[in-house]
């Protein structure tokens, strides 16, 4: 059982791979784009983005996927299965990602933050939108600098760094 998040594993190798998520270690690097990964399986699936290979095919609608997890989640569209249920409000979800994102409604967690103004966000996309539309103190539009941000390189907040900074308003009409 992981001391940091409580997740359990039946195999020691899976547990050791999981620990890299918490340490930030990413020993698997793509030779083509230099992106690094903490888990070899994720790295191998990433290679499909360069080759265009999509080995997982839906027999129901013909859609293809490069990642097994995306294929499995897609199948739930056809079956209607929503295996993730919120204990607090009963709302159901077809993916653990959507479920965990929903939990922030109840906890108030805002794990994404703007390094310029310290404003907090519950979703990575909200931070990206903020960075692309808000003008900060240096009067330089963030979109000129960082609108190419992806979810993987957005800053996650450190709970000890949360500051009560007034929120900025958008200057665009």
UniProtKB/TrEMBL annotation:
This protein's name: C2H2-type domain-containing protein
Sorted UniProt keywords: DNA-binding, Metal-binding, Nucleus, Repeat, Transcription, Transcription regulation, Zinc, Zinc-finger
Q: Note the PROSITE patterns from the entry.
A: ZINC_FINGER_C2H2_1 (PS00028), ZINC_FINGER_C2H2_2 (PS50157)
What domain of life?
Answer: Eukaryota
- Annotated function: May be involved in transcriptional regulation.
What is any one of the record's Gene Ontology cellular component terms?
chromosome
- Source organism of the structure: Oreochromis aureus
Q: What family is reported?
A: Belongs to the krueppel C2H2-type zinc-finger protein family.
- What Gene3D superfamilies is this protein classified in? Classic Zinc Finger
Care to name a GO molecular-function term for this sequence? RNA polymerase II cis-regulatory region sequence-specific DNA binding
Q: SUPFAM superfamilies of this UniProt entry?
A: beta-beta-alpha zinc fingers (SSF57667)
Q: Where is the C2H2-type domain?
A: 1-27, 28-55, 56-83, 84-111, 112-141
Protein location: Nucleus
Q: What is its main location?
A: nucleus
């Amino acid at each position: 059982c992981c001391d940091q998040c409580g997740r359990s594993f039946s195999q020691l190798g899976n547990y050791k791979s999981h620990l890299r998520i918490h340490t930030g270690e990413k020993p698997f690097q793509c030779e083509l784009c230099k992106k690094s990964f903490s888990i070899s399986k994720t790295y191998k699936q990433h290679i499909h983005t360069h080759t265009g290979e999509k080995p997982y095919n839906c027999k129901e609608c013909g859609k293809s996927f490069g990642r097994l997890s995306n294929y499995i989640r897609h199948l739930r569209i056809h079956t209607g299965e929503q295996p993730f249920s919120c204990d607090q409000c009963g709302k159901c979800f077809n993916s653990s990602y959507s479920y965990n994102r929903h939990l922030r409604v109840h906890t108030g967690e805002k794990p994404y933050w703007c390094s310029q103004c310290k404003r907090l966000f519950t979703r990575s996309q909200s931070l990206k939108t903020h960075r692309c539309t808000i003008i900060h103190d240096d009067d330089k539009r963030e979109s000129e600098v960082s609108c190419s941000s992806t979810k993987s390189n957005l800053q996650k907040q450190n709970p000890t760094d949360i500051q009560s900074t007034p929120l900025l308003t958008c200057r665009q009409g």
